[in-house]
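User: Predict the complex.
Assistant: Input components as received:
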Amino acid sequence: MSFSIIKAGLLDTIQDPGRPGYGNWGIGPGGAMDRYAAEVGNLLVGNGKQEAVIEIHFPGPQILFEQNTLIAITGADFSPTVNDQGIPRWQPVVIRKNTILHFPAHVQGARCYISVHGGFCMQKWLNSFSTNLKAAAGGWHGRALKKGDELPFAENTIYFAGLLREDRDFETLPWRVNIEKLYRHPHEIGFVPGHEWKHLSPLSQTRFLQENFLIHPSSDRMGYQLKGAPLDIEGAGEQVSSAVSCGTVQLLPNRQLIVLMADHQTTGGYPRVAHVISAHLPKLAQLRPSDCVKFRMMDMATAEDLLAAQHKELHILQRACLDHLNELVC
Amino acid sequence: MPAPRLACGSAKLANLAPMSAMINRYQPAVSIFPLGDSAITAELGGDADEELNSKALAMQDWLIARRFPGILDIIVAYHSVSVFYDPVRVRQERPDCRQGAFACVRDCLEEAWREARPAFVPERGTIRVPVCYGGEFGPDLEAVAEDKGASAEDCVGWHVGRTYRVFMVGFLPGFPYLGVVDERLRVPRKEKPSPVRAGSVGLAGKQTGIYPVDSPGGWRIIGRTPWKLFDRGADMPIRLKTGDRVEFFPISPEEFAAEVARLAGLPRVAGQSPP
């Protein structure tokens, strides 16, 4: 069981929820930029949240299915098609063998996820499937996917062929997930103040709270450079390096901000003015260069509650998806 | 050993003011603050010296011994220790912690700061790292020497002339931040990062370090080691760890080539010991 890449996309990598636990070795957690989309994709096809998925950027890859396969496409909208017929996102779809999945047009978002029922068969590196490009390890041979790669996945336990009608290249299964709440107000990004927030000048604090910041074209999986009103900090200099986290907003010497994202370094020394709340990292991961960000201050309790609510929804979704799949098979 | 008390009940604020007046050798002041909603840092007061680094390592060991599900990672840097956690999991695991995951993990860190004693960190032997200085191995050595009004030999002498401590590993997988560099050898970073080969030994201010993999970098490169500091396939993929003691010794280009050949021929051993 496998599918093959007949044309590589801009940056297609294997990801999962990440590789925490190796910070003291200089190895960051990495993982899917939009963890929510990656996890939902897995749940829709009956997998656990931790399975490997493919994270793609636009332009996306072209993929040939060599077997009938149950997949889900989540995250950004790159208008996915199977043999040139549009297929829905955020919904499980059975794909007929010898068809081609393709992403012809960018509609919205930055990162799209492909999950397959049973998950991909590959070896974990340091307890995770995610690709660490810097270490050239994890995922698929430690690198981005390229033409000719044949990705094996686990033997399917469901007989998908019976679900496919004679004249159809794919069949959509009748359950989907409502994502409106999570990605609503896409530009409004919640944060809790960082340790150096109090050292920002009053004017800079006001600017941070009220102005829009543009995502710079050089932004990537390591970090989002923001372009906006210059900010000032007392005792501006670099500090002794210490750990940083995904979502840490640092003030650079050029008075501009950077938000550290999934592939960030483990340590840094620039002033930490804010931290994006975990519940809003998926939203932020779907913003692209020239999109804008507007920061909203939140307290710790709200940040934790929002994440707990997301977690609860995923838990309910997981049970519902498994029930649906079991019904289909029985 | 008298330790200043931290009134835990009153520690509602995320930031405990550094108690600089109370600094003593055994119990440095601490500032504990959130690093977002899923991590907390305890920064030890004062200059980032060996004792603070030892204290941070001791706090890490203390925390590891009492680790509970939901704690994802613990990272030690120069004078800080950071705990990364899953707030949802921590809330589930510690339902007694009604004030949320942050308060729960913060209390752990405070306790670690009060209880952990650096004396329990075992001393490790000094690791001697071979370096071929100058030439194509250390393209910035001449410029560093010129900058310092010294000869290349002087600079090499200053670099090999002391024992360093690994204060932290960061930036790249297995990149050790070593200190403290001889005052006569302190140079600023380059204006712009340029490509650096794996094994390159660089200088930046008080620090010296070794690039474990090919990478862009801004440190001034004075030499290169044939050692592999990062081996993704090994059980212990990094060679130098926080708290290790390191010395450098000069080798010739011929010895460099011989060592590369020797290492290439070795079977891969988990956590291989220095030659």
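The longest strand of chain B covers residues 126-133.
Let me know if you want any component modeled separately.
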